[in-house]
Write a structure and sequence with these properties.
Length: 231
C-alpha cells in the first residue's frame, strides 16, 4: 500500500478512533508481498476481521461472492477499505454491503485512488473525484441505508509517488445520531477539494490535479512566462 494511503489511515485512527477499541472489518484485506497494510495501522487498537475473495495473507474470511458479505447487518463498529475500490467492478455494490454491516452510529473509512498508475489486481476500473463520497451517500440513501458523509478530500502525493487519494469518511445514521464531532480536515490542511457535512463550499478548491498543476508550471517556465533565476 502506498505512503499516502497509510498516512490517511493513521490520521483516521488518530482523529476518529482515539482510545477506542472497535470491532473493525476491512474490505479488501489481502496483504500483498512487500507492502504494508491497514491491519498494521489498526490491529493493536481493535478487534480486526479482514475479508477478501482469495485465501491469502491478511484474509480471515474468504468471500464466495464479492458483493455479499457473510456477516450480519449492524455487525461492525468500523468498516474500512483502502486501495480496493478501483479493483471492484461494481464498487457501488461493495459500498452497500459495507453500509449494511456497519452498526448504527458506526464509521466507514474509504481511501481510493483519484490519480495513479494503471495496475491490474486483477482489474483496474476506476478513479474517484471530489464528489464521489456525496454520490455514494446518496446511492445508499436511495437504497434505504441511512449513511451520512462526514468529510472527504483529495490527499497530496507523498515520497515522489504518483498517488492522490480520495478519502471519504461516513457515519451510519443521520447527523443527529452521529457522535463523531472531530474532522481530519480541521486538523490538517495538506489536501484539496475538501467537503464537510453541512457545507456546500469546497475547502482548498482546485480544478487541476496535482500532476496537471506541475505540468502547467513546468510549461510556463519552459515558455519563459515564469522567470527562473539560477543564482
Amino acid at each position: 500500500m502506498h505512503t499516502s494511503a497509510m498516512e490517511n489511515a493513521e490520521r483516521f485512527k488518530d482523529v476518529y478512533l482515539k482510545n477506542s477499541r472497535p470491532l473493525i472489518v476491512e474490505v479488501g484485506s489481502q496483504i500483498v508481498e512487500n507492502q504494508s497494510s491497514l491491519r498494521s495501522v489498526f490491529n493493536y487498537h481493535s478487534r480486526y476481521i479482514g475479508i477478501d475473495f482469495q485465501e491469502k495473507k491478511g484474509v480471515d474470511i474468504v468471500l464466495e461472492d464479492a458483493y455479499s458479505f457473510p456477516l450480519a447487518s449492524n455487525f461492525a463498529d468500523v468498516v474500512v477499505s483502502s486501495s480496493c475500490f478501483e479493483h471492484s467492478e461494481f464498487f457501488w455494490l461493495t459500498f452497500l454491503e459495507m453500509s449494511r454491516i456497519c452498526k448504527e452510529g458506526g464509521l466507514i473509512f474509504m481511501n481510493t485512488p483519484s490519480n495513479g498508475m494503471f495496475h491490474r489486481f486483477p482489474v483496474d476500473c476506476w478513479r474517484f473525484y471530489p464528489d464521489s463520497g456525496v454520490a455514494l451517500q446518496n446511492w445508499c440513501r436511495h437504497n434505504n441505508h441511512e449513511i451520512t458523509l462526514l468529510e472527504s478530500f483529495t490527499s497530496f502525493q507523498r515520497n515522489s509517488e504518483c498517488w492522490n487519494d480520495l478519502v471519504a469518511i461516513f457515519a451510519k445514521g443521520n447527523m443527529e445520531s452521529c457522535h463523531h464531532p472531530d474532522r481530519i480536515s480541521a486538523v490538517f490542511s495538506d489536501f484539496k477539494n475538501g467537503i464537510v457535512n453541512g457545507s456546500d463550499a469546497l475547502i482548498n478548491p482546485a480544478v487541476l490535479s496535482e500532476d496537471m498543476a506541475r505540468l502547467t508550471v513546468a510549461s510556463q517556465i519552459s515558455n519563459g512566462n515564469i522567470p527562473v533565476s539560477w543564482n
